[in-house]
Amino acid sequence: MNTAIKNSEEIMSALKQQLACDFNCSPKDFDREENIITLPALNEKRRVFSKETFFLQMATLGNNAVISADQKLHPWLAEWVKGKTGFWLFEQHNYFELNDKLREFGYKLNLTHHMFLPVPELVEVAPDFEYKFIETAEIMKYYGCPEFPNAICSEFKPERPDVLAVLALDGEKIMGMAGCSADSPELWQIGIDVLPEYRKRGIGTTLVKLLRNETIRRGAIPYYGTSLSNLRSWKIALASGFKPAWVESETSKIEKNLFEK
User: Fold this and answer.
1) DSSP characters over 84-151
2) DSSP string, the chain
3) Is the dihedral of CA 47, 49, 53, 58 positive or negative?
4) What range defines the domain where residue 167 resides?
5) Is 229 a domain residue?
6) Over the stretch 213-255, which tens digit does the pLDDT of each residue have?
7) Buried b (16+ CB within 10 A) or exposed e, 34-54
8) 111-151 pLDDT per residue, tens
9) Based on the structure, what is the number of domains in the chain?
């Protein structure tokens, strides 16, 4: 087991290396002042959230924006980003303009993810309940359980397998689960679910703390994502030793109405 804890610079460097692979650019592109537009590519070490390239995806680390998009969008995007600070492109008034353009090609903006990286130290955690760590083989029996849509994937995905989870137990009943998928060998994404009757007891925060600490002990970098309006999830991230690090969004195809001619 690799017990060395990466420092903040190493964590950020690993993130930029990963995003560069995902967005088909250079890690240094995320440090530039100007916005960057690239062509999408199925790079071998990318995080695999889709078997195809996204028609458009974009990310910001708080300064410029890096946009990976189909060639057909490049002329319009070059004008759209002109004179704009990158992180403002993620605001609604700019999203409206972008979404209108995407619809011309049969696409729409999908989710916007607010992403968190860990502070480089192990965080203090004192569980007041019984808990249990499980790994891939044992995680599999929970696939399809409607109680845990965020903690683990819906099924085993070899391209980003669920590698570790921790259960909060009330006797034999599971109160909550935090799990992480190895989205890349180095970056493991944490998700959390707590059953409604056990919420507001700090179980979610405790589980995420336990999981992030164990992930770090294993030499990986835990990361956490949520939506803008999911304040419960934001509070868990901030209370569990994570800090805001980047924002990313992507597109999806518009599903045609079955009654549309």
Assistant:
1) --GGGGGSHHHHHHHHHHHHTTTEEEEEEEEEEEE-SSPPP---SSEEEEEEHHHHGGGTT-TT-TTT
2) ---PPP-HHHHHHHHHHHHHHHHTS-GGGGG-SS-EEE-----TTS--S-SS--SEEEEESSSS-EEEE-GGGHHHHHHHSTT--GGGGGSHHHHHHHHHHHHTTTEEEEEEEEEEEE-SSPPP---SSEEEEEEHHHHGGGTT-TT-TTTS-SS--TTS-EEEEEEEEETTEEEEEEEEEESSSSEEEEEEEE-GGG-SSSHHHHHHHHHHHHHHHTT-EEEEEE-TT-HHHHHHHHHTTEEEEEEEEEEEEPPPPTT--
3) negative
4) 124-224+234-240
5) no
6) 999 999 999 999 999 899 999 999 999 999 999 999 999 999 8
7) ebbbbebeeeeebbeeeeebb
8) 899 999 999 999 999 999 999 999 999 999 999 999 999 99
9) 2
What is the CB neighbour count within 10 angstroms for residue 154? 10
- Type of residue numbered 7: N
* Nearest CA-CA partner of 165 in 217, 207, 227: 207
Q: Are 126 and 104 in contact (CB under 8 A)?
A: no
Pair 38, 94 in one domain: yes
- CATH assignment of the domain containing 185: 3.40.630.30
